Amino acid sequence: MCSVVVLLSSYNGARYIKEQLDSLLKQEGVDIKIIIRDDGSCDDTKKILSRIEDNRIVCHFCENVGVRKSFLELLRLGKEAGDAKYFAFCDQDDVWLPDKLVTAVKALDALDADLYYSSFTTVDSNLNVIQENVQHHSPDRLGAALVNLAVTGCTMVFSRRLLDAATQYTPARIMMHDSWLYKIALALDYTVVYDSVAHIYYRQHENNVIGDQNSIVKKWRNRYRRWFCDVTNDRYYEAEELYKGYSPIMSQTQLSILSPVICYRDKSFLQRLKIAFNPAYKTGKVIVDISFKLSILAKKY
After folding, report:
1. Residue 188, CB half-sphere, CA atoms under 13 Å: how many?
2. What is the Cα–Cα distance from 113 to 132, expressed in whole angstroms?
3. Torsion of Cα atoms, 197 then 208 then 148 then 73, to 10°
4. Which residue stretches of the chain are H helix?
5. Statement to judge: residues 126 and 156 lie in one domain
6. Which of 101, 109, 231, 295 is most buried, most CB within 10 Å of its CB?
7. What's the whole-number mean pLDDT along residues 228-257?
């Protein structure tokens, strides 16, 4: 049976975490180990986790560093956790269907791939279905991923090779752990597989740390802030971190896509125009593509 290590970051998740853990322990067809890094919870989460008596679950109680750094720490903890073949990100408040991991493992094995992710079913706090098979299929090209990315970390399952790559460099600033891992995979020409069938109930409630960041309202709010407020664009800094950490081992093809974005602010208007209309960065989403062109020309990327 294939071994999978689940990497779960918890923070004030007392209300839902036991239900999530129950769903993880019911995964079929895999040998599962769960590593939990509690990010300084101040509710009953620590008490709940401390009562666990299952040798498949290992808990680390740590100081609060935020969700991004917590998952990066989990990658390192996962690397030290034995010789598992695959790893999976996990949120504290979702519910996984019993076939989630085995489906991912079969897809990865069939294509000799390094990263799997899927659509999901959004539910409310009581697991009532809001929308089935939400399609968040991200572009499978690095150029397009630098423009627009909608991967959902809790659906990801990935190889030890990708985990090893992700832990060889510690970024100072990223958008989120899932977008970071996805871009590393694309930058290194690793195979990515997408599953349009949902195998997870993605819970939406008032206390979500991230929530559904891809809602229309949040997308336009982020665009407004990027254009009219003097805020730092994490999208640019994540690309910069990708270059710092992985340019020495990237192919020339991928470097030719990443490099122009990193140094675009020093370019002339005509040079930025060439970058903005380079088809390598086209996502196929009209509004997104127009926004990218304008952000490059106005130095707002």
Report:
1. 23
2. 26
3. -100
4. 17-25, 45-50, 67-79, 100-111, 142-147, 160-166, 177-187, 216-228, 234-246, 252-262, 269-276, 286-297
5. yes
6. 101
7. 89
The token pair that represents 260 in the structure block: 């122009």
Tokens of 149: 């990315």
Domain final residue, candidates 176, 203, 230: 203
Name the packing angle between helices 216-228 and 286-297 (round to 10°).
10
SS3 content of the chain, % helix, strand, coil (to 5): 45, 20, 35
Best CA proximity match to 8, nearest among 90, 68, 88: 90
Amino acid making up residue 255: L
Residues 164 and 241 in one domain: no
The set of residues, in sequence order, having a beta carbon less than 8 Å from that of 162 and lying 6+ positions away, is 114, 115, 181, 184, 185, 190
pLDDT number for residue 72: 98
Query: Which residues make Cβ contacts (< 8 Å) with residue 253, sequence separation at least 6?
Result: none
| Interatomic CA distance for residues 282 and 142, integer angstroms | 10
Domain range spanning residue 51? 2-203
Are 197 and 264 in contact by the 8 Å Cβ rule? The answer is no
Strand order of the β-sheet with 120-123 is 95-96, 200-203, 120-123, 129-134
Please give the structure tokens belonging to residue 221. Answer: 């709010």
Verify that 22 and 120 share a domain, yes or no: yes
CB 175 within 8 A of CB 240: no
- β-bridge mates for residue 129, sequence order: 123
Over residues 33-90, the pLDDT tens digits come to 999 999 999 999 999 999 999 999 999 999 999 999 999 999 999 999 888 999 999 9
